[in-house]
Amino acid sequence: MTDPHGLTGAYALHALPDAERAAFARHMADCEPCRQEAAEFAATAARLGLAATVTPGSALRERVLRRVTTVRQVPPVGRPVEWARRAGVRRAGALSRWALAACVAAASALGGTAVWQYERAQDAAERAARAEQRADALTGVLAASDAKSRTVSLPGGASGTLVVSDGRDRAVFLASGMAEAPRDKVYQLWFSDGGTMRSAGLMDPGRTEQAVLLRGLVDGAAGVGITVEPAGGSEQPTSEPIALMEMPA
Fold first, then answer.
1. The Anti-sigma K factor RskA C-terminal domain covers which part of the protein (predicted)?
2. DSSP state letter for 161
3. Cys-Cys with 16: which of 12, 20, 46, 243 at CB 3.0–4.6 Å?
4. What pTM was estimated for this model as a whole?
């Protein structure tokens, strides 16, 4: 690795071979500019990762079908073009009636689809707004001028970086190479407060690379732990931590 300063983007995108990644992680522990740049790249990747396909609720279709019957079709405007009075007029008239019927059917279907899409768009917009708020908070921590970080080794060759902003009193955990959580289990993050554990949110069980904005304020916590919990999380840890990280100094 001849120029480690040029590998921050590849590191954030997990595009380095294992040997180079480990070497760069060691370099980054002593290089504040590289830590900052890698954190900013990771924030951008995390922001893009928050964009997810939204599945409409099961009750949405029933609501749409009920509303379709109340959607009033717009009456035709103007007079239809008169066909020339010649042989074939009857056939042309019959064809135009079939075309008109098809148009009306299509308009009705589009009307129902429009209502469905409108309600789905509203739901998606609300979820997108919440995701945008989380992304802004996450990016704010990683890009904060007072951000401090600590990188540790995790089981299975994974690594984790804890980034804390004292000014914002928030923390972000960046995971790299973590094994997927066991079936019906989830990784849960905890603030360590003088021997007690306070839930800091859940990680995505199906992703090995992720950035997580810890839930709640740091509020003087001494460190952060990770446990394996039943799906949905627990109020208190039910297993021994697989990792305990001190807050970066």
1. 100-242
2. E
3. 20
4. 0.54
**What letter would DSSP give residue 170?**
E
Q: Could you tell me the two tokens for 227?
A: 């446990």
11-70 pLDDT, tens digit per residue, is 766 667 767 777 777 777 777 777 777 776 766 665 555 544 445 555 655 665 565 555
| pLDDT tens, position by position, 110-149 | 555 555 555 666 666 676 676 677 788 888 888 888 999 9
State the DSSP H helix or E strand holding residue 147, giving kind and residue range, or none if neither: strand 147-153
78: region left, alpha or beta (phi > 0 left; psi from -120 to 50 alpha): left
Taking Cα atoms as reference points, which of 143, 155, 168, 160 lies closest to residue 218? 168
Of 66-80, 110-124, 206-220, minimum mean pLDDT range = 66-80
- The first and second tokens of residue 246, run together, are 């001190």
From the number of C-beta atoms within 10 Å of its C-beta (0-12, 13-18, 19+), residue 164 rates as buried
The single residue listed with the structure tokens 């840890």 is: 237
Give 186-236 as a DSSP string: EEEEEEEETTEEEEEEE--TT-SSEEEEPSS--TT--EEEEEEEETT--SS
CA–CA gap between residue 79 and residue 95 (Å, rounded): 17
Task: Give, to the nearest 10 degrees, the angle between helix 60-68 and helix 89-142.
Answer: 140
Q: How far is CA 25 from CA 9, 38, 72, 87, 147, in A?
A: 13, 10, 63, 84, 18
Round to whole Å and give the CA distance between 179 and 183: 12
